[in-house]
Design goal:
Layout lengths: L1 H16 L10 H4 L7 E6 L5 E4 L9 E4 L6 H16 L2 E6 L5 H6 L3 E4 L16 H15 L6 H17 L17 H14 L5 H12 L25 E5 L6 H22 L9 E6 L2 H5 L4 H12 L1 E7 L7 H4 L4 E4 L5 H11 L3 H8 L6 E5 L10 E7 L7 E5 L6 H5 L6 E5 H10 L4 H12 L4 E3 H10 L4 H11 L3 H13 L1
Parallel strand pairs: 3-8, 3-9, 4-6, 4-7, 5-6, 7-8, 12-14
Antiparallel strand pairs: 1-2, 1-11, 9-10, 10-11, 12-13
The structure holds adenosine-5'-triphosphate (ATP) and magnesium ion.
The site of adenosine-5'-triphosphate has 20 residues, from helix 3, strand 11 and strand 13.
């Protein structure tokens, strides 16, 4: 704290001196960029420099975001996408594992594709790809998600049937198709394999049966999310503004991963066919939030997008609670790493080992409040300063339907003037609602709380909030749980109770 006060008086002096030791922050020219060609993130902690992000001098535009639950990963992503769209007209495609972005995308006027909630993706859609290339991609997804690679004969049969289905639908396997032509679905592939089985001339019927069985799990009535005509125009997916692919309605991880892999394959292809254009900034950002299976497999196209993205102005943002779930090839190649609060020692070890920051930095990261961050940037040229620096707080784009919980009444004078301590917690209605449900607060109480907040400009003091909960006989455990999920420290939770009782 004292450091911040000192620097406002003599930051010139300080910046001269730090050359002798290890300077704690990259010099201004690396942090403060042309606002019409960069994205504002927040103010740096030490020298209070507005940090605006550009990938012009970074190794690549990709970003990894790590931090514990509630640390502010999704908040960062939303803020970043909003500003990138504003500055560069950047399109965004969110592969949304838990449906976290759905409400926000809707409010922002974007497109939501709810798989398992009425929307479908035909994984055989070509969107300008040659059938043989799409066939290979589909097979790769099956290799990642099923045991097909252990059965070469079944693999061969499946691949052959997929290609045959395209031919039967009038496609030429090695030609770029007419995009108006309707693609077959997995159901057509299964029908071909079954026909072959019924003919009875094939030598190993058990292999055929197993191949059918494996495919059928993705084509069963009611679970045929990937075996029907697509409800989105995949050909325009990378140029449609903000798109949320909400996977939370799918029955399990395997389905979610298949959708994610398919989207990445399609996006990689779009990236390559669209090629480079002389526009500044990023054309598209692909977001993978908690998609560990997809972010961790070498064969996933997330890795290809990371390798080739820079030259096509395509960026990948991977967000995860667990940094070790992110593939090495991705993690060691991102140009920017945003570290929010990380609690587990083994994750801190991993981050410190990869990014090589000081123990001071490590202890700061372990005690961050919501939205506080350390950023690592990997520059194209050799630099003489440590690449990890602290951000006071990610300064967010406030969402439209936002509710505010004010905590300033329980803060001390010192805390009130400390810019790193949150005075207000912003939440979208849906987000706050699900946090209360998660804490076992009853729907009636939740409704009372929202009514109360609505009558006060969607804002409530934390003590008043806790009062309502107590009056509605919410258990103390549930209240504590909710305050924790909100991101309050244990000390502040204790204080909230103390002050509420005094009221
Ligand atoms: N920089 C910030 N300023 C103000 N509020 C924030 C900030 N960052 C996060 N929040 C609020 O804190 C809550 C948790 O943030 P968020 O949902 O982004 O966490 P997360 O890291 O994505 O968690 P999870 O891993 O559970 O998805 C949200 O209600 C969000 O609005
Ligand atoms: Mg999140």
């Amino acid at each position: 704290m004292t450091l911040i006060k000192v620097q406002s008086v003599m930051s010139n002096e300080l910046s001269k001196r730090v050359i002798l030791s290890r300077p704690p922050e990259p010099p201004q020219e690396y942090l403060l960029n042309d606002p019409t060609n960069s994205v504002f993130i927040g103010i740096t902690k030490l020298f209070s420099v507005p940090f605006t992000w550009t990938f012009a001098n970074l190794t690549n535009p990709h970003i990894a975001v790590v931090g514990i639950t509630g640390a502010g990963k999704s908040f960062f992503v939303k803020t970043f996408l909003t500003r990138a769209s504003y500055v560069w007209n950047t399109n965004a495609i969110i592969i949304d594992w838990a449906g976290e972005y759905r409400a926000w995308v809707k409010q922002s006027g974007g497109t939501v594709v709810g798989l398992g909630k009425g929307d479908f993706l035909n994984i055989m859609d070509l969107s300008s790809m040659k059938p043989i290339d799409r066939t290979k991609q589909i097979m790769t997804s099956f290799e990642i998600l099923t045991d097909i690679s252990e059965y070469p004969e079944q693999k061969r049969l499946t691949e052959e049937a997929i290609e045959q289905a395209y031919v039967n639908f009038g496609f030429n396997a090695a030609e770029i198709p007419d995009i108006r032509k309707q693609a077959p679905t997995l159901k057509d592939v299964i029908a071909l394999l079954q026909e072959k089985l019924q003919e009875g001339t094939y030598q190993y019927p058990a292999e055929l049966e197993n191949a059918v069985y494996r495919l059928r799990q993705f084509a069963r009535e009611g679970e045929d999310f990937f075996a029907r005509k697509s409800t989105i125009d995949l050909d325009r997916i990378a140029s449609s503004g903000l798109v949320d692919i909400d996977l939370s309605g799918l029955p399990d991880e395997k389905f979610r991963a298949l959708a994610a892999l398919f989207m990445l394959q399609t996006l990689k292809e779009k990236m390559r066919t669209e090629g480079w254009s002389p526009s500044k900034g990023l054309k598209a950002l692909v977001v993978l939030d908690e998609a560990w299976k997809v972010a961790s497999d070498d064969r996933s196209d997330a890795v290809m997008i990371v390798r080739e993205g820079r030259k096509y102005q395509f960026g990948l943002i991977v967000a995860s609670q667990n940094p070790t779930d992110i593939n090495e090839a991705i993690f060691s190649n991102v140009g920017t790493t945003v570290m929010l609060r990380i609690r587990f020692e083994k994750f801190l070890d991993y981050m410190q080992g990869s990014l090589n920051f000081s123990n001071f930095m490590r202890s700061e990261i372990a005690k961050f409040g919501v939205g506080q961050a350390a950023v690592d940037m990997s520059f194209q040229t050799n630099v003489q300063f440590p690449s990890v620096f602290l951000i006071e707080r990610i300064v967010g784009e406030i969402p439209l339907n936002v509710y505010t919980i004010n905590v300033s009444e329980i803060l001390s004078q010192r805390e009130l003037t400390d810019p790193s301590i949150l005075k207000e917690y912003y939440m979208e209605k849906l987000d706050m609602n699900s946090k209360m449900i998660e804490s076992n607060i009853s729907p009636e109480t939740i409704e009372k709380i929202f009514n109360e907040m609505d009558s006060r400009g969607r804002m409530l003091d934390i003590r008043a909030l806790v009062q309502i909960m107590i009056t509605e006989s919410v258990s103390k455990d549930a209240v504590i749980e909710f305050l924790r999920i909100l991101g309050l420290s244990d000390a502040l939770i204790t204080r909230t109770f103390l002050y509420s009782e005094q009221q």
